[in-house]
Amino acid sequence: MSKPILLIGAGRMGGAMLKGWLADGLSPVIAVETNPSPALKKLGVRIVPDIPREKVRACVIALKPQVLRTEAMRLKPIADSGAPMISIAAGTSIATLKKAWGPRAHILRAMPNTPGAIGKGITSIFKGPNATAEDCRLAQRLLTPLGQTFWVSREKLIDVTTAVSGSGPAYVFFMVEALADAAEAQGMPRAEAERLARATITGAGALLDADARPPEELRRDVTSPGGTTEAALKVLMDAKGLKPLMARAVAAANKRAGELAS
């Protein structure tokens, strides 16, 4: 039997990866989870409450940053074995992980987002200095069940990914809230306002996914001269409108990601 893949943390994101691995024939797998869900138990993988002592092919750490910082030292024997250590924790730098795992650890950082739980996410990956080409190929294969993947050339760009796509779903959900509030303010009942706002955002996202044209072109398709959309866009595209507001929001998230990583 080949060496197993070790998954540390099998919550929504870890569980989504695990299902993809099994579908892709990546086995055996060991999941370290102290409170396994009924769905996880049904997958038929080995679930243990603590870190096993055996050699593993790779270790994927799907823990929250604050948990990883307290638990990282316990993973040092795995790192010492030369197995690639793939962390999806936001704001936890390779320099921080090296303090726990040593300077020779094969570390890769990845930043997925919550749509990865249904295979519709996007994940950026950064190769640490000791990671090999084989480590990179395996990391990409292990992260693909979450959705699209791409490589970044500098670790700092993981923080930018965190600010844009990692936090981005919350921005979109807030847009749904704002649209529903606006519809309600114009007299629409709340239930219908929320249904309208949700369907508008999900439908627009599906169109973006299906149509490769730039978003500016898609926006112009909706905007008739002198019409209702143009009237609304004059507000959103004002000098103090959506673009500068979004730029400030992403900059704030990027700054905080850097602070957490330091």
What does this structure look like?
An eight-stranded mixed β-sheet has the order 3-2-1-4-5-6-7-8, sandwiched between helices. The protein is α/β, with parallel strands linked by helices and 262 residues long. The chain has twelve helices and eight strands. The mean pLDDT is 94. Helix 7 crosses helix 12 and helix 8 crosses helix 9 (190-210). Strand 7, helix 6 (133-143) and strand 8 form a beta-alpha-beta unit. It has two domains: 5-160, NAD(P)-binding Rossmann-like Domain (Rossmann fold, 3-Layer(aba) Sandwich); 168-261, ProC C-terminal domain-like fold, CATH 1.10.3730.10. It has helices spanning 12-23, 38-42, 65-71, 76-80, 94-101, 133-143, 156-166, 168-185, 190-210, 215-222, 228-236, 242-261; strands spanning 5-8, 29-32, 46-48, 58-61, 85-87, 107-111, 121-127, 147-151. The radius of gyration is 21 Å and the shape is elongated. The protein starts with a strand and ends with a helix.
Helix/strand class = alpha/beta
Name the CATH class of the largest domain. Answer: Alpha Beta
Major sheet, described briefly? 8 strands, mixed
The percent of residues in helical segments reads 40-55%
Instruction: Briefly note the CATH topology name of the largest domain.
Output: Rossmann fold
Write the layout of secondary structure elements.
Elements (H helix, E strand, L loop, with lengths): L4 E4 L3 H12 L5 E4 L5 H5 L3 E3 L9 E4 L3 H7 L4 H5 L4 E3 L6 H8 L5 E5 L9 E7 L5 H11 L3 E5 L4 H11 L1 H18 L4 H21 L4 H8 L5 H9 L5 H20 L1
Parallel strand pairs: 1-2, 1-4, 2-3, 4-5, 5-6, 7-8
Antiparallel strand pairs: 6-7
